[in-house]
Amino acid sequence: MSYAKFLVKRILQGVFVVWGVVTVTFALRAAAPGDPVNLIVDPGASPELREQIRREVGLDQPLYVQYLEYLQGLVVGDLGFSYQSRRDVSIMIAERLPATLELAIAATIVAVVIAIPLGVVSATRRHEPADYGATLFSLVGISTPNFWLGIMLILVLSVQIGLFPVSGRPVSFTDAVVSLVTTGYAHDLVTWLRHIALPAITLGTYFTALITRLTRSGMLDELGKPYVTATEAKGLPGVLIRYKHVLRNTMIPIVTVLGLQLGTLIGGAVITEAVFNWPGLGSRLISAIYAVDWPLIQGIIIVIGVGFVCINILVDSIYAYLNPRVTDE
């Protein structure tokens, strides 16, 4: 199969997955108990007013007609209207999406900076205390719930020591960089770093443990290959062999998992955002669930699903470009 056909196949599969997400979320809204009109007007409103609103928003139409109209709106970028907030859903999501992306990318950076060196050390010092320590760290990282870790970090590093702020996001990364470029002062950037540090560590802990184990297993496979023995026989330094040759050959599956996990982090930041009051899609989703704001709930879930699918397609395309054998699978 050619690269172009492979890419078209992945895109079509992604479109099908997005359609499934849209269909499931619409079905959940239709199956939810209660009258949707109650979310727009007071339950004590007159029957005439309720019927008028039902006609205006299309709730008097058959369910399949409502579904088709919703799909038509999504095609042109219309995610609906939040009657609780009296605002377009697309605008409400656009306000919070940058904060979620900042947190997901920061968590990925934290995981990579910690996990890859730790995995290399664990592989090169197999069955030594460093290897056992890395294994224990991975086990603890995978087993620790994010919400508990976040609360403990707040209690110790914020409340007791006062090293980091408790919660919030007073400045965005974009504004901090603009301030640094225009004024030459890094105050806003430092403020952003101090506020995102604990949420990024909390969200990236599980990811760190996963990448550590993946790096270790990949390094062990590569260290047993003949080219490593040949480079050692040439007298190359051990650090150069490990990081330039062995780690480089291990990076393809790591990069693949990094891309896939980035999509998972975007959707999995809900609890972390709630713990740290981080103004992202996760906290907005929880607020929408409490308010039973179905248009906003649907919009956020669809955006997260589309983001996850796009990242998967991008990773698959890069992987197929680097390793053409993938297109034959």
Automatic annotation (TrEMBL):
GO terms for cellular component: plasma membrane. The chain crosses the membrane at residues 12-32, 103-124, 136-163, 192-211, 252-276, 296-315. Pfam families: BPD_transp_1, BPD_transp_1_N. InterPro entries: BPD_transp_1_N, MetI-like, MetI-like_sf. This is ABC transporter permease. Coiled coil: none annotated. Its main location: membrane. PROSITE patterns: ABC_TM1. One of its GO terms (biological process) is transmembrane transport. PANTHER family: DIPEPTIDE TRANSPORT SYSTEM PERMEASE PROTEIN DPPB-RELATED (PTHR43163). Belongs to the binding-protein-dependent transport system permease family. It is found in: Cell membrane. SUPFAM superfamilies: MetI-like. CDD domains: TM_PBP2 (cd06261). Residues 97-315 form the ABC transmembrane type-1 domain. It comes from the Archaea. Gene3D superfamilies: MetI-like. Keywords: Cell membrane, Membrane, Transmembrane, Transmembrane helix, Transport.
